[in-house]
Specification:
heterodimer, A: 563 residues, alpha+beta, 2 domains, disordered C terminus, B: mainly alpha, disordered N terminus
Chain lengths: 563, 119
């Protein structure tokens, strides 16, 4: 079983006139790693593509959420955090009476409204029920905005998917991330000339160009891709690797210690049953700001409010520090005195906190977020080009290119649905957000249903149409959906793009401008695919490319060019 | 010369429809064995290592977190090992050799006396 030249990185092809033929070596480490890379990359590649793309846009989930709640006016400046916290705590007394726990996320620059969730007293056997609402920091009252999951949907989807129990989704995401980790490691081992290849780009050479695009995208972002994959696993490590905890944590006290090293969430203790008013939340937030600086408080959690055993935790935000590890002040809810201060955590916990922080990228300013966004996009393209390359390589070896075997067709069609269909489905959510009737029951859920309905239609389209046409049409449709977003928004809200720009509302304008940029990218991809047949027919290139009827080199080139 | 890439030899053998069912099974058995070794064996090794870490003379809480943190690297390394070596048998032997020193450590942790709570 002497392998044919197995490694995708073996030698430059003779057509380029630079390479000499290397005799086939016995299957070495690079060949086996190449196989491992190809198959781990393929098997969960579509999930990975979806995780990467939705994860990428999640870096701007707050901005997306703002855009999806156009009723909430653009707020240039925020009232004082302590005042806001005090106001909303008052509102919660009436909104969530008798709750054993509420938790309030304070507004900040990117997230101009406050959000709180609270435990609903259990009844009818339902054990852990929560409710949540948005609050206006100016009035402290519940915000009346359309029911939408906002950018939160993409964020949730990227690690737990949808339409399945959360735990299953997270395990599936973990499996995909583990495959990704293996694909990265095996990909690096496969890669003989990691440095030279980065500066090599062979345009319009079919599989070669795909390979070069894939290499450039991967190597360019390699440290990031490795970091984001590993830290992604770390964010859910207590789910994926519960064994050390099960073996080593032997008492509830230790369990509490472990939890407090990882998050600032306050588990309510047993209430005393004796009523006592909650001390001033405003004063507690002021005390925290005195220690950490203004604007540093992210979350206020109260356990057993209104009870003599009340506790309030004031947690520090992620802004301005790399680590996500918890820092909080714990107050006696009745006297308002500090009973505990969590200033730092142990070495391993701090490592985890930094890894978590690196994954979320919330430590930095706008420039950091843009960098994260762009490199993540390169990661998305890395997965996408890898998936497409699987078919590009195999097409040349098909016995009858007109009638590929089943496996090939499945991969080809799934590629279309994932790579061209998902952007369209995501754009459809933004359309649904504007077009669904405001009084529709379960409106927020329907916005999500629309995503999956459109995605399923895209898959059907990809199955029923000739592949080349399907690529072009879905890319074009996605481009149109995003390009027309400003028009849709101008027609359905009183916040058209020009007004947002004039007011300096960059969150609102940014969503539409980035939508336009994506529309241009998708249109470019559609155009490249459409024009490919003409270019592929040229002599000297056709040999390397094989059958021309596919979106080959140029799409990669377009992806690459758009970076 | 074109760079040609095909599925793995074993995958190609799976595709040979003329072969009998038993012969086909025998042909893919090493691959299945490797996949089980990688996915199941790799996870088991990672879990074992994450528990064995708890014997280290550091705070138990930090060891628990450290064990979780490093487990994914162990897992990835195990998967790469399983597919890098020459045969499925070697892959399994390698996993077992790695597990051997970890087993008594993990055992002692799991059945050890509860240590005092320490930060």
């Amino acid at each position: 079983m002497s392998a044919p030249d197995h490694s995708p990185h073996a030698t430059p092809d003779a057509a380029s006139g630079t390479g000499a033929r290397v005799p086939p070596a016995p299957r070495g480490l690079r060949q086996t790693m190449s196989d491992l890379h190809i198959w781990t990359g393929l098997l969960l590649g579509w999930f990975l593509f979806a995780m990467f793309l939705t994860g990428t846009v999640s870096y701007f989930k707050e901005e997306l959420s703002q855009w999806m709640r156009p009723e909430i006016a653009h707020q240039a400046d925020q009232p004082e955090a302590a005042v806001v916290a005090g106001r909303i705590a008052k509102t919660l007394e009436t909104v969530a009476p008798g709750t054993t726990q509420w938790s309030l996320r304070l507004p900040d620059e990117r997230h101009p409204i406050a959000n709180a969730f609270w435990r609903v007293p259990p009844k009818d056997g339902a054990k852990r029920a929560f409710k949540d609402a948005n609050f206006d920091p100016q009035t402290g009252l519940k915000v009346a905005a359309r029911e939408t999951p906002g950018g939160e949907f993409f964020y949730r989807f990227h690690f737990q998917f949808h339409y399945m129990p959360v735990a299953w989704g997270r395990w599936l995401a973990g499996l995909a991330a583990m495959f990704m980790l293996v694909a990265i490691v095996s990909g690096v081992i496969t890669h003989k000339k990691i440095f030279t290849d980065f500066f090599t780009f062979r345009w319009g050479k079919g599989q070669r160009s795909w390979l070069d695009a894939h290499n450039a995208l991967s190597v360019f972002g390699l440290p990031f891709h490795l970091m984001i994959t590993y830290t992604g696993l770390v964010t859910l490590m207590t789910l994926y690797m519960p064994w050390p905890e099960m073996a080593g944590i032997e008492s509830p006290a230790m369990k509490r210690q472990l939890t407090s090293e990882m998050n600032a969430f306050l588990q309510p203790a047993k209430p005393s049953g004796e009523a006592a008013p909650l001390a001033s939340i405003e004063a507690m937030v002021r005390e925290a700001e005195r220690r950490w600086g203004p604007g540093s408080v992210a979350r206020v959690t109260a356990a057993n409010p209104g009870d003599a055993a009340a506790r309030v935790a004031i947690a520090r935000g992620e802004g301005g520090r790399l680590s996500m590890s918890p820092q909080y002040l714990l107050f006696d809810g009745v006297s308002g005195r500090v009973v505990e201060e969590k200033q730092g955590v142990g070495a391993a916990a701090e490592t985890r906190g930094v890894m978590y922080g690196l994954h979320l990228g919330r430590f930095g300013d706008g420039a950091t977020r843009w960098l994260y966004f762009l490199v993540s996009l390169a990661g998305t393209a890395m997965v996408g080009t890898g998936l497409v390359m699987w078919t590009v390589k195999r097409r040349q070896k098909l016995a009858d290119p007109e009638r590929p075997h089943l496996g090939f067709r499945i991969v080809e069609r799934l590629n279309i649905a994932a790579i061209a269909g998902l952007p369209l489905a995501m754009a459809a959510m933004l359309w649904a957000n504007r077009l669904l009737p405001l009084d529709l029951a379960r409106r927020g859920e329907w916005e999500i249903h629309v995503v999956f309905i459109v995605w399923a239609l895209a898959l059907a389209h990809g199955v029923l149409r000739p592949p080349r046409r399907a690529w072009i049409e879905l890319f074009a449709l996605g481009a149109a959906a995003l390009a027309l977003l400003p028009v849709l928004n101008a027609l359905t809200t009183d916040r058209p793009l020009w007004r947002s720009l004039a007011q300096g509302d960059w969150a609102f304008a940014g969503v539409e401008l980035v939508g336009l940029a994506f529309a241009a990218l998708l249109a470019g991809l559609a155009r490249r695919v459409a024009r490919h047949r003409l270019k592929g027919a040229r002599p000297g290139r056709a040999r390397a490319i094989g059958t021309p009827a596919r979106p080959a080199a140029d799409t990669a080139a377009a992806v690459e060019g758009a970076r | 010369m074109n760079v040609t890439v095909s599925p793995t030899p074993s995958a190609r053998r799976v595709g040979a429809s003329s072969a009998g069912g038993l012969a086909r099974l025998r042909a893919v058995l090493p691959l299945i064995s490797r996949i089980v070794a990688a996915v199941g064996g790799g996870y088991a090794l990672a879990a074992l290592a994450s528990v064995a870490v708890l014997v280290l003379p550091v705070s138990r809480i930090q060891a628990v977190i450290g064990g979780m943190l490093s487990s994914f690297a162990v897992y990835a390394a195990a998967v790469v090992w399983v597919f890098a070596v020459r045969s499925a048998t070697r892959a399994w032997i390698g996993l077992l050799v790695a597990a051997l020193p970890l087993l008594p450590l993990a055992w002692s942790v799991w059945h050890g006396a509860a240590p005092a709570v320490s930060p």
